[in-house]
Amino acid sequence: MTTPSRIATVSLNSAVDQTVTVPHFAVDAVNRVEAVRVDAGGKGVNVASFLAHFGHAVTVTGLLGRDNAALFDRHFAASGLQDCCLRVDGATRTNVKIVDPERDTVTDLNYPGIEAGQRELDAVASSLDEALDRKLEWVGLCGSLPAGLAPDAYARLTARARSKGAKVALDTSGAPLAAALPACPDIIKPNIAELGDLLGRGLSGPVDAAAAAREIVAGGIGLVVVSMGGEGAVMVSADDAVLAVPPKARIASTVGAGDAMVAGLIHAATRGLSLAETARLATAFSLGALGEIGPRLPAIAHIEDFARAVEVTALDLNDA
């Protein structure tokens, strides 16, 4: 008998992640591919995979295209994820990352995805309800929305999860993020540009990010995490604020780095860690993903080593 899932992720716009390594990549020229890797991905799938890597029982629900679902079938089975995704007509989109290790650049080509409507969202909501009935602790709502879904899709799913006692981590941007805030997800993780867009002003650096995050927390969000690339991440709760800066490290690929941070935040919450400890661990998850080709994490011992190397500084909320 399998262990009941205590975490679920919702992946409405999954993706096939194709990572292509091309040394000295050039536009408008013939390029030689050195290596190719193809993975089942998308934010919700990646977050689930990273959490399973740390021993959590995780259910994945959402939408997958029938035409290329076999890749996801194999991944879910290999990762020990409970597959509750709805198969729909068409193919799950492909995202291509062209990695140039010589110039340390990554070029993204993101394809359009499948279309969905209210019927598909209702089916996903019903699948989530079945998981929630097993007393979930956390639900991760991750990624963009496919064409055809209204911006309030995540707001509805957030309200549904919270009404049944689960906490919600939301990682999206634009109109879906704005629409979901009144439903009060427990964690949101915009990058600094996305947070600026949400508030209608430009943001620059940790102080700006902390001040903006504090405004969102005042509206009823438990934790706002603002990623800032190489500058680290600002994390603000009702009582505390910290800046987490990772050590310099080799970047093999950016695929799944943000998703790894979301998984780290959920994992830290299940362990009841302080904000400073959460910042170290979630940053270490992200750092671990940056060192891997494709959406994966290194051994847990390496993540723990990374966490010890993350520099965490308390921020004065009165200055934010």
TrEMBL record:
<comment type="function">
    <text>Catalyzes the ATP-dependent phosphorylation of fructose-l-phosphate to fructose-l,6-bisphosphate.</text>
</comment>
<feature type="domain" description="Carbohydrate kinase PfkB">
    <location>
        <begin position="22"/>
        <end position="295"/>
    </location>
</feature>
<dbReference type="InterPro" id="IPR011611">
    <property type="entry name" value="PfkB_dom"/>
</dbReference>
<dbReference type="InterPro" id="IPR017583">
    <property type="entry name" value="Tagatose/fructose_Pkinase"/>
</dbReference>
<dbReference type="InterPro" id="IPR002173">
    <property type="entry name" value="Carboh/pur_kinase_PfkB_CS"/>
</dbReference>
<dbReference type="GO" id="GO:0005524">
    <property type="term" value="F:ATP binding"/>
</dbReference>
<dbReference type="GO" id="GO:0016052">
    <property type="term" value="P:carbohydrate catabolic process"/>
</dbReference>
<dbReference type="Pfam" id="PF00294">
    <property type="entry name" value="PfkB"/>
</dbReference>
<keyword id="KW-0547">Nucleotide-binding</keyword>
<dbReference type="GO" id="GO:0005829">
    <property type="term" value="C:cytosol"/>
</dbReference>
<keyword id="KW-0808">Transferase</keyword>
<dbReference type="InterPro" id="IPR029056">
    <property type="entry name" value="Ribokinase-like"/>
</dbReference>
<dbReference type="InterPro" id="IPR022463">
    <property type="entry name" value="1-PFruKinase"/>
</dbReference>
<dbReference type="GO" id="GO:0008662">
    <property type="term" value="F:1-phosphofructokinase activity"/>
</dbReference>
<protein>
    <recommendedName>
        <fullName>Phosphofructokinase</fullName>
    </recommendedName>
</protein>
<comment type="similarity">
    <text>Belongs to the carbohydrate kinase PfkB family.</text>
</comment>
<keyword id="KW-0067">ATP-binding</keyword>
<dbReference type="GO" id="GO:0044281">
    <property type="term" value="P:small molecule metabolic process"/>
</dbReference>
<keyword id="KW-0418">Kinase</keyword>
